[in-house]
Amino acid sequence: MRPVPGLTLHAYDAVLDAPGTHRGMPSPTVTLVLPLGAPLDVAWEGEPASRVHQWSTVSGMHTRPALIRHDGWQSGVQLALSPSACRAVLGVPAAAVAGALVTLPDLLARAPWLADLPERLAASRTPAERVAVVRTGLARAVAQDHAATPAALGEALRLLGAGARVAAAAEAVGYSRRRLSTLVRAETGVDPQTYARLARLDRARSAVVDRVRSGATAPRFAEVAAVTGYADQAHLARDWRALVGRPPSEWLREEFPMLQAGPVPAG
């Protein structure tokens, strides 16, 4: 299988003390979750009608948390797909699933490789076997040569994801700001400012998780803000509350057991 830029794949097993709810955070990726043992039970916060209880779930870019209910144990495989990887793997731009929770049958017309994936995963015994099953499927997906994200737009998204201002990203690739906004929305389902905001939040979440897994029980959010592109800790806290529904300290208290248990569905 040739590499798929912008794709992150991992198998997860998280054993917790009791049933609960994991808060999946917004991010600049499309998330494909393939659970084992029990279907994934997920809904957008505040929207019970959005609830999905299935063996496969795809969540598009979103600006609200996904609430993932569990019985104290979660196991499966997760793929995080950048806009370019979404085209290569699912055969559609990320905008096609923006703000949505969909299941694999909704995507089979463009991604037939997904049809038997849950069954083949159910027969796997170890995390390594799970990853190998998904990689075999991905090889079939990328062999289809779906239309790629235009190179200039891909570079603009890279710059926005790294913290560049919208005007600077547009100038770097030779677009007007209006043209860039139109193209980013058509590709991702969100405007450039929102895409950059999601990327910055994702960098902050990763920084917090890294600190927790290295042994820190109380990460310094001022330090996280400084290294991930926020003006200050207050700015980080406002953004976190707006997009996650909790200030970062409260989110960390709720998620701390899950973070210690290892990678879990991101939402």
UniProtKB/TrEMBL annotation:
Entry-linked InterPro entries: AraC_XylS_family_regulators, HTH_AraC
Alphabetized Gene3D superfamilies for the sequence: Homeodomain-like (1.10.10.60)
UniProt keyword Transcription regulation present: yes
The entry's keywords: DNA-binding, Transcription, Transcription regulation
Annotated signal sequence range: none
Tree of life domain: Bacteria
Domain HTH araC/xylS-type intervals: 165-254
PROSITE patterns the UniProt entry points to: HTH_ARAC_FAMILY_2
A UniProt-annotated Pfam family: HTH_18
Transmembrane regions: none
Protein name as catalogued: Helix-turn-helix domain-containing protein
Organism field: Nocardioides imazamoxiresistens
